[in-house]
Amino acid sequence: CQSTQQESTEMKSLIVAHRGASFEAPENTVASAQLAWQQNADAVEVDIHTSKDQRIMVIHDKNTKRTCGADMLVKETLADSLRALEAGSWKDVKYEGEPLPFLEEVIETIPAGKKLYVEIKCEKTVVPLLKEMLAQHPKKEQILFIAFDYETIVATKEAFPENKAYWLSSKLPEDYKSLFEKVKKDKLDGVDLSHKVIDAEVVKTAGELGLEVHTWTVNDLERANELQTIGVKSITTDKPGEILGGLQ
Ligand code: G3P
Ligand code: CA
Predict the structure, then answer these.
(1) Domain named GP-PDE: which ranges (predicted)?
(2) Burial level of 221, CB count in 10 A (0-12/13-18/19+)?
(3) Is the pTM above the cut of 0.90?
(4) ipTM strictly over 0.85?
C-alpha cells in the first residue's frame, strides 16, 4: 500500500557516523569517513579545531595526545606539523600512517546525496574561515553545522543561512519549551541532544515549533529503534553498519 510505505519512509531516522565509523576505524580520519560511506551511513559527523596558521583540522580533542601520541595543542601548532603526525595506529596497526585530516579532505569524500555534520569545537573565529573555504565549494549544500557553544552556532547560521545548524546539548532545563522558543527565534533549525534527555514529549514540543531533534551517541539498537519511533531526525552512532542493519 503506497501510503503506508510513504509513512514508514518518512519516519526513518538518518544514521550519522560519529567521528566516522569510529568503533572500527580511527575517529575523525578519512579512513573512518570512507568506512562509514561503505556501510551506507546517511551522514558522517566530524569535529574541527583550527591550527596556529588558521587551517581547519579534523580532530576531537584540543590537543593531539590521545589520538596521535605527541602532546601538542592544535591551536598553537602549524598545520604542517599537525600533518606530520599519525592518527591511525592508536586504534589498530592496520591504520598506521593515517594522517590527521584537513576538513577539505573529509568534505571531498562525501558521496552524492550524503551529508557531513561539522561540529565546531573551537572558537567562533573559525566561521569566516569556513565561509571562505565553502564559498564556491560544490559540496557546500551537503554540510550541516553543530556546536555546543550557543553563540557559535547562532553565528554560524547567520553566516550560512542556507545550511542547517543545530545546537548541541547534553542536558535540558525543566522548561525546555522556552529554550526551544529561543532556538527558533535565533533561526536555528533544531537541536542535537544527548539521547539520555530525549523522550516523545521533547520531540513533540520541538516539532510544534518547527524544530528538528537530532541525537547522539546511540550504539544500542533497541534505543535507536525507540528514538526513530518517537520521530528523531537523525541518530549519531559509532556503529553505523550495525544500527542500519537492525533499524526497523
Ligand atoms: O554528534 C554530537 C557529538 O559528537 C557530541 O559529542 O564529544 O563526541 O563531540 P562529542
Ligand atoms: Ca562531535
Answers:
(1) 13-247
(2) middle
(3) yes
(4) yes
